[in-house]
Amino acid sequence: MAVTYQPRTEVYKFHPLVVFTAVLAAFLVQVFLPPTSFFLLFDLPFLMVIYFAFSRRNPSMGLVLGLVVGVTQDLLSHNPVGLYGMAKTLVGYAASSLSARIDTDRPIPRLLLIFGFLHFHQIVYASIERLLLGQTAELVSLRVLEAALVNALVGVLIFSLLDRFRRTT
Amino acid sequence: MRTFVERHRHLSLLVAMLLGQLFFLAYQIKGANDVRLIRLWAIAVVAPVEKVAVGVLDGLGSLWDNYIALYGARQENERLQAELAQARLRLQELEARAAEAGQLAALLELKQAHPRAPFVAAQVIGSSPAATTLTVLLNRGSDAGLRPNMVVLTPDGVVGKVIAAYPGAAEVLLITDRKSGVGTMVADSHLLGVLKGTGGYFCRLEYVSNEETVAVGAELVTSGQDQLFPKGLPVGRVVAARPGELFQEITVEPAARLTRLEHVLVLAGAPETLGAAAPASSSGEQPRAR
């Protein structure tokens, strides 16, 4: 008897304009945030990658969105192109793969997953910086912990807002 | 092979995307090749959007101040309260305009103090979308004569340097960015060091030996030894100093208010055109080796 895998979670669709507008808005808000110690903790484009990866539950879509968002961040922040690109590609892939197995529609799992994925993002980013650029980026620090907490809280709020625009397949 | 790729198409796509970026990254690092053309396209797309967004935000602020905020007061039908609210809004508006005029007057004063210096005034229209890079985007670019390595100032002090100039926009690396380094000296003792960014609000003054005395509150100015920043410009103030392994660990608060930048001046010429500023040149002393 063939055993087939049944996802326990629902797949959602978005109008392409919603995805584009949400990502564009995230970039615009991010560039207008004052560069104070608190606001530098925010990574709104990261939250968009996570949200759409969670909702679509398609690893290819997740990694492509991560790639586009990450490379755009690199281009606009004078980083070598690929630094954020690789980190967010992996985050998009991992988030969508994981969301096919666990329920990412409720606030608590979302909070914990954003918290975890921000650390994962930082570890990948810092590792690439260390290995390829020879810089001494921190893998884990109090600052990353603060960023993970802030983004997790903000993410849960933004995700519930974006939930209004999704459609079930 | 084809079957494997088809069976694991998500994983194959991931590997392909990562390898592509890895090779591209290696290409940029190995040959020190900046992907200027791609950045140029990205800025060409983003800068107009940011300019429009600034305009829309200003317009919305004006609409809020002049209509929506007053609408509630009118609805209350209390004439005195409405007048008071209007007067307060007007006062806030005037205060905001006065603050802006003050900033512009200070910029003008700085410009007039150095008549030979070819300054270009610019407005900050956005900042970096990545928290690890502290850059801002200006509304003036290569068409206004801006070039990489030009010094960016406010009347309070040094902001940073231009790292890329595009038509209609230029990118500025703030002195608080981790990749930034400014030749600096203590204004009163002429002790030399290098001001490095920390990626946060503060900077660090590096390469000052443990034997030297650096007082908390000491003013720091550019030393001019990096051949980039003109000598004597204020860069910051020491807020903490303690002995380290080889050199002191000195924390510096930037002189320019980098978290609230609106208008800046770009020195569109060689550092010599500015001439030495007062703190470093007035005593006529020579800088002291660290």
Supply the key terms.
heterodimer; A: 169 residues; mainly alpha; two-stranded antiparallel sheet; 6 helices; B: 290 residues; alpha+beta; Thrombin, subunit H; six-stranded antiparallel barrel; 5 helices; 12 strands
CATH class of chain A: Mainly Alpha
CATH architecture of chain A: Orthogonal Bundle
Adjacency order of strands in the biggest sheet of chain A: 1-2
Give the helix tally of chain A.
6
Number of domains of chain A: 1
Question: Can you walk me through this structure?
Answer:
The complex is a heterodimer of chains A (169) and B (290). Chain A is mainly alpha-helical. Chain A has one domain (12-168): Arp2/3 complex 21 kDa subunit ARPC3. Chain A contains six helices and two strands, in the order E-H-H-H-H-H-H-E. In chain A, helix 2 runs antiparallel to helix 3 and helix 2 (44-56) packs parallel to helix 4 (83-99). Chain A is globular and about 45 Å long. In chain B, 37% of the residues lie in helices and 25% in strands. The termini of chain B are far apart. Chain B has a domain at 181-260 and 271-281: Thrombin, subunit H. Classes of the chains: A mainly alpha (169), B alpha+beta (290). Chains A and B meet through helix 1, helix 3, helix 4 and helix 5 of A and helix 2, helix 3, strand 2 and strand 5 of B.
Describe the SSE topology.
The complex is a heterodimer of chains A (169) and B (290).
Chain A (H helix, E strand, L loop, with lengths): L11 E2 L2 H17 L11 H13 L2 H18 L6 H17 L7 H27 L8 H21 L4 E2 L1
Antiparallel strand pairs in A: 1-2
Helix pairs in contact in A: 1-2, 2-3, 2-4, 3-4, 4-5, 5-6
Chain B lengths: L1 H6 L1 H22 L5 H40 L3 H35 L5 E9 L7 E4 L12 E4 L2 E10 L2 E6 L6 E6 L5 E6 L5 E4 L12 E4 L11 E9 L6 E6 L8 E5 L10 H4 L9
Antiparallel strand pairs in B: 1-2, 1-12, 2-5, 3-4, 3-12, 4-5, 6-7, 6-9, 7-8, 8-11, 9-10, 10-11
